[in-house]
């Protein structure tokens, strides 16, 4: 069985991020790039499924990203992925959900898979819409927010989180699965994993390999960022250190009264 | 884009306030675009809910009370929505920004070749184009994203961003025909609801949220719940509290949980990590109770009271109860 995991390379989630007024894209300089945290959970799920399936099951990670960030994929290889494929082309810059899913779908078709594991969200774009769009582009059943998954009799059995609780769902393979964080904490790369990752292959695809029928990148996108601004500043808040609980309670109570909240 | 279509999320006919917010907003946008406001309600309980929707300023409510919608994971719903959109003609589709709303939005992006604006808090019509306002980069930038001229566009809308206002002449209810020739693969074997009957977090005017600082499940019941009840609000939590199993994940607030923007948010024993902040930073007033005056939450709270939650919260609840009596 071949499992492919999509990973996006994103600016450090804990860093302050800004948009460049000239290009209207995220400023990446001076900010470390990392694997999108949500995709580490997806990778963890794929590695668990591989371990349980045994045999000749493999895990491939796939990223669509500038070539300069290629080496960041070593971390995924060190965690246990077998190989990596990067789709990289200047023509992809500025792609929105539609263009991203369209280009990714073509690359993923070329790579081939039985199961596609996708993160639930990106820390930078945060649309959460790419998985659904990808599933449609690839004609796959789409099972999102999995906290447990198993493969039996060629079918995927999933327990998934919903807005109000959870569901169990069954679907035939090939399928697209996204993971909730409750699937399990991503593993750390072992020293052996890190050493081994140096010998694993990261291959590259470009748009020329995909023969797309429609434009991608900024011109092929269906949305356009036209303006951005920082949010209105909140007045600096008060910090109070009362002498005891009752005084603390009184402070809050008076504040709420003043704001007409009680 | 001329018309507006609202995707109505519900469970057996029970829906959230966001549905009525979108129904109200759909009318306002459709009027500016010179089109009609539609809603699509699918699955068990749809007919009953459609009746309730006629109290809002919509032109047509499309209904399909089809068991397949609940038997299969989203596929039939996406088919119905696609069919309704194609029948209505060029439209902006409004979808609540929830877990399943994001899924529906993604699927429709590919089906309709549409752009999507995510986590939208405002929609403006500028020169006939639809411009969507969304906080991005953890709220550090407020972006305006235009849906390029095309037949269809999609916005996933944050609950509580718009007011819900009944009115209008009473929508026509129309039955949607079942899209032909489809087969569905992903079967829902069981569907469990947790923590039902409580006020939905996203629509609560007051949220009392607890974090790791509470140290266990019990304080959520003994400390937070009475305060929430006294203020007419709901209890929420940080991921640390949900991960520890103290509260169900459906109470989690933040990037991977609910996005809330109540009038009042009280964070108790929550440090204010960036992933938590993005889910609550647009609350009108933020109060924090924390042992540590240096915790990140202090940077975006209107009032921080430094001290022990176990000493402060019960006293506060008493003061509020006494004021109400
Ligand atoms: C991919 C990803 C997604 C995430 N998504 C979310 C999300 O959606 N929501 C979310 O909340 N987090 C999320 N997180 C986790 C987030 O980074 C933080 O770890 C989490 O929010 C911390 O929760 P906390 O504030 O309750 O705990 P802590 O950070 O441990 O803070 C506890 C606070 O309680 C205070 N305290 C302790 N005892 C008391 C007392 N007796 N009285 C008063 N104060 C006390 C302490 O001073 C401290 O400030 C995510 C993380 C990742 C990596
Ligand atoms: N450029 C990309 N390269 C690889 N995977 C991506 C890319 N963009 C999105 N994804 C995948 O789609 C998921 C959801 O992304 P989004 O819809 O942008 O929040 C991510 O967690 C990734 O797994």
Short summary of the structure?
Chain A is α/β, with parallel strands linked by helices and 262 residues long. Chain A is built from seven helices and 13 strands. In chain A, the strands form two sheets. A nine-stranded mixed sheet of chain A has the order 9-8-7-10-6-1-4-5-11, with helices on both faces.
What brief labels describe this structure?
heterodimer; A: 262 residues; alpha/beta; Rossmann fold; nine-stranded mixed sheet; two-stranded antiparallel sheet; 13 strands; 27% strand; globular; B: 325 residues; 2 domains; seven-stranded parallel sheet; five-stranded parallel sheet; 30% helix; binds flavin-adenine dinucleotide; binds adenosine monophosphate
Helix-strand blueprint:
The complex is a heterodimer of chains A (262) and B (325).
Chain A: E1 2-6, E2 9-11, E3 33-35, H1 37-53, E4 58-64, H2 74-79, E5 83-87, H3 97-111, E6 115-118, H4 130-138, E7 142-152, E8 155-161, E9 165-172, E10 175-179, H5 191-197, E11 202-205, H6 217-220, E12 223-229, E13 238-240, H7 245-258
Parallel strand pairs in A: 1-4, 1-6, 4-5, 5-11, 6-10, 7-10
Antiparallel strand pairs in A: 2-3, 7-8, 8-9
Chain B: E1 3-7, E2 10-11, E3 14-15, H1 17-33, E4 37-42, H2 46-53, E5 60-64, H3 68-71, H4 75-88, E6 91-96, H5 99-112, E7 115-120, E8 122-126, E9 129-136, E10 141-147, E11 152-157, E12 172-175, E13 187-193, E14 206-210, H6 218-231, E15 234-237, H7 239-243, E16 264-268, H8 274-277, E17 285-290, E18 303-306, H9 309-324
Parallel strand pairs in B: 1-4, 1-6, 4-5, 5-12, 6-11, 7-11, 14-15, 14-16, 16-17, 17-18
Antiparallel strand pairs in B: 2-3, 8-9, 9-10
The structure holds flavin-adenine dinucleotide and adenosine monophosphate.
Flavin-adenine dinucleotide (FAD) is lined by residues 211-213, 238-241, 252-257, 269-271, 273, 275-276, 279, 289-292, 295, 308-310 of chain B.
């Amino acid at each position: 069985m071949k499992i492919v995991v999509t990973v996006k390379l994103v600016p450090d989630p804990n860093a302050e991020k800004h948009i460049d007024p000239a290009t209207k894209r995220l400023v990446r300089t001076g900010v470390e790039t990392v694997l999108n945290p949500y995709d580490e959970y997806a990778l963890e799920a794929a590695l668990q499924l591989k371990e349980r399936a045994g045999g000749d099951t493999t895990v491939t990670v796939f990223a669509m990203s500038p070539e300069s960030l290629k080496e960041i994929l070593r971390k995924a290889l060190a965690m246990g992925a077998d190989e990596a494929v990067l789709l990289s082309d200047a023509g992809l810059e500025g792609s929105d959900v539609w263009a991203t899913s369209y280009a990714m779908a073509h690359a993923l078709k070329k790579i081939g898979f039985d199961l596609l594991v996708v993160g639930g969200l990106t820390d930078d774009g945060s649309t959460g819409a790419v998985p659904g769009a990808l599933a449609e582009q690839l004609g796959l059943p789409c099972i999102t927010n999995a906290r447990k998954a198993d493969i039996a009799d060629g079918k995927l059995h999933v327990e998934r989180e919903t807005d109000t609780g959870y569901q169990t769902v069954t679907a035939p393979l090939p399928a697209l699965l996204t993971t909730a964080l409750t699937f399990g904490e991503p593993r750390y790369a072992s020293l052996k994993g890190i050493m081994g990752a140096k010998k694993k292959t990261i291959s590259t695809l470009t748009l020329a390999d995909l023969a797309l029928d429609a434009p991608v990148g900024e011109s092929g996108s269906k949305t356009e960022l036209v303006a951005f601004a920082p949010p209105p500043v909140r007045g600096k808040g008060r910090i109070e250190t009362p002498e005891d609980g009752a005084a603390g309670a009184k402070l809050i109570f008076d504040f709420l009264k003043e704001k007409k909240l009680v | 884009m001329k018309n507006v279509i609202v995707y109505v999320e519900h469970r057996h006919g029970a829906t959230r306030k966001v549905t009525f917010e979108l129904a109200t907003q759909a009318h306002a946008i459709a009027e500016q675009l010179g089109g009609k406001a539609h809603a699509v309600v699918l699955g068990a309980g749809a007919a009953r809910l459609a009746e309730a929707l006629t109290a809002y300023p919509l032109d047509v409510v499309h209904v399909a009370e089809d068991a397949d919608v609940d038997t299969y994971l989203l596929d039939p719903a996406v088919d119905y929505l696609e069919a309704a959109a194609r029948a209505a003609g060029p439209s902006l589709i409004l979808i609540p920004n929830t877990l399943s709303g994001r899924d529906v939005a993604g699927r429709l992006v590919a089906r309709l070749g549409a752009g999507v604006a995510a986590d939208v808090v405002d929609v403006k019509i500028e020169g006939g184009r639809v411009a969507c306002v969304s906080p991005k980069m953890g709220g550090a930038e407020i972006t305006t994203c235009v849906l390029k001229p095309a037949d269809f566009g999609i916005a996933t809308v944050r609950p509580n961003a718009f007011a819900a206002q009944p009115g209008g002449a009473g929508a026509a209810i129309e039955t949607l025909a079942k899209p032909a020739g489809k087969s569905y693969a992903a079967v829902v074997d069981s569907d469990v609801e947790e923590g039902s009957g409580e006020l939905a977090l996203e629509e609560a005017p007051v949220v009392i949220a607890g974090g790791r600082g509470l140290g266990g499940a019990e304080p959520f019941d003994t400390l937070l719940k009475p305060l929430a009840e006294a203020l007419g609000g709901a209890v929420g939590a940080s991921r640390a509290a949900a991960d520890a199993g103290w509260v169900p994940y459906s109470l989690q607030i933040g990037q991977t949980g609910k996005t809330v923007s109540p009038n009042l948010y009280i964070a108790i024993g929550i440090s204010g990590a960036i992933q938590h902040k993005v889910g609550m930073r647009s609350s009108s007033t933020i109060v924090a109770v924390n042992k540590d005056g240096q915790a990140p939450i202090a940077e975006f709270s209107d009032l921080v009271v430094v001290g022990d939650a176990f000493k402060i919260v019960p006293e506060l609840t008493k003061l509020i109860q006494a004021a109400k009596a």
